[in-house]
Amino acid sequence: MGAMVLAIPLALAGTANASGGPHGAAFALQARGAVNYGPISAVDSASGPAKKSMQEYRAPDGSLVAGVLNAEAGPGWAKSSLADLRLKLQAYGGGSGNSELEASVLSSSCSGGSGEAHLADFKWGDKREGYAPPPNTGISIPGYVSVLLNKQTRNADGSLTVVALSVKVDGHQSLDIASSTCSCPEPTATPTPSPTSPSSPPATSPPTSSAPSPSSPNESPAGPLPEAPTPVPVAGHLPVTG
Prior knowledge:
- With 242 residues, this protein is mainly beta.
- The chain is built from no helices and 13 strands.
- The protein has strands spanning 24-33, 37-40, 43-44, 50-58, 64-74, 77-88, 100-111, 114-124, 127-131, 137-140, 145-154, 160-169, 173-182.
């Protein structure tokens, strides 16, 4: 089966975890219930970016075989994948005859609180597909088995977990393949502007009067004094006495 290469952006965003920063975690495979194994290739970003790989894994009960199991996580992002999956559903009490799930690649990724899953050459029964299914896409399997593709769960702390393939058998078994968990971005607080006092109008000086100020009695009027008139002789006769 061919391999599929996925380009996944490594966005560094998320909410604070216990260590005070954005968080990511991932694993390739985990079974819980009557049969327990894993998590396989599990990583956590609590101490910084981390990555693990395994060339091949075979379940102890022979129900599952997978190759090239990868998981990687960093602050606020995670991704996981495995290749060449063969899962026998009848081993978990579901399906009939040769009811098996196969895929050449299953992968999930999560970044900044959103995620997706991809499946290449995914086959169950007589159906074969390669696509990116919508979140929580269910498929019908005979028996007491429920299968979700691109299972997405919002956790109590606000983080998101994306599982490429999740298998549950009523009452006693679950299997998660290609799981990625990432924290959500913190909401950005909008700064509140500080109150400002109304601006005062500029101060103005009182208007000046152009009228002349009154002069004091002893004060000389402004400007040069007028000249005295020239005396004019008057003709006449004075009486003679004595």
